[in-house]
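Internal tracking record. Fields below are filled automatically when a chain is submitted to the structure queue. Please do not edit lines marked as system-generated. If the sequence contains nonstandard residues, flag them in the REMARKS field before resubmitting.
Queue: standard
Priority: normal
Entity type: single polypeptide chain
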Amino acid sequence: CSLPDVLRHLPYLKGPSPADTLLTPLHFMPSELQAFRGTNIYGATCDRQESCSVDWSQYQTFIRTVHPDRAERYTW
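SYSTEM-GENERATED OUTPUT FOLLOWS
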């Protein structure tokens, strides 16, 4: 079944995956990520976390301007 373009992100908007299925380094606990210290995956993950944090901050700023009452409901 093909979704119209306007709905193409619907599967992502239905909610996040259950925690037990989040197995990429971005979802590691800090202690788990430390096990990779000194490897490329550690540096790449730290870079990606920083990028996501910047994006999130910009998103929060935008939401506050559009719907201030909703901004605090969206958490990292």
